[in-house]
C-alpha cells in the first residue's frame, strides 16, 4: 500500500513504541517465548522483545517497512527475523508454531470482510502451540459507529515537526470505513492517502474467536488493562488463549 510506503521513513516518530505494550506481553508470555508480530511495521517492538530475551519475529505486507525493520535490527545487533508477507497467508510463511502471536496497530481491520478476518484468525490459532497466547489491538469501533465519529485525534511529533491527520467516512451500505490520512512534514510536504477498513465490533470478533476455539478471552480498553468500555474506550485490546 502506498500509504505505508510513504509512512515507513516516519513510522517510529508517528507511532513510538510504548512500554505498556511490552509490559502486557511480558505478563502473558515468559522470557524466551517464540513470538510473531503480525503487521510489525519498522520492527521496533520485535527488536525490543529480542533484547529482553524473546525469540521474536516480524512480518509486514510493506516491503519498505520490512527493509527499515532489517536496517533497525542491524543497528541494534539483533537477528533480522523479518519477512514480507500477507497476513492472509500466514501458514504459507511460517511452518513452525509460536508460543505467542501479536497483532497491534489496528492491523486486523485492514481485512475487509468477516470471512477474511475469520480465515486470518483461524491461521493464528493453528500456528499457536497449545497454551499459546494471541494479543491484538484495534480501534474501538463500537464507539466509532455508535457516536458517528469522523475524525481521530491528531498525532503530533513536535520534535520532528510531523502531523498526521486521520479521517473516517463510514459507508453504511457496504459496512466499510474509508480511512483518509494527511501526513504533513516539517517542510510542509504532504502525503495524502486513503484505504478501506472493516469496522469490527467487539461482539463480532468475540463470536469469531470463540467459534475457532480460543478460550479465556479478556478484553481491555488499552494496553494498561483498563476495563473495556464500549462507549468511551478508544481502543479494544484482546488477549486469548489456545487450549
From TrEMBL:
<dbReference type="GO" id="GO:0016740">
    <property type="term" value="F:transferase activity"/>
</dbReference>
<dbReference type="InterPro" id="IPR029063">
    <property type="entry name" value="SAM-dependent_MTases_sf"/>
</dbReference>
<protein>
    <recommendedName>
        <fullName>Methyltransferase domain-containing protein</fullName>
    </recommendedName>
</protein>
<keyword id="KW-0808">Transferase</keyword>
<feature type="domain" description="Methyltransferase">
    <location>
        <begin position="35"/>
        <end position="132"/>
    </location>
</feature>
<dbReference type="Pfam" id="PF13649">
    <property type="entry name" value="Methyltransf_25"/>
</dbReference>
<dbReference type="InterPro" id="IPR041698">
    <property type="entry name" value="Methyltransf_25"/>
</dbReference>
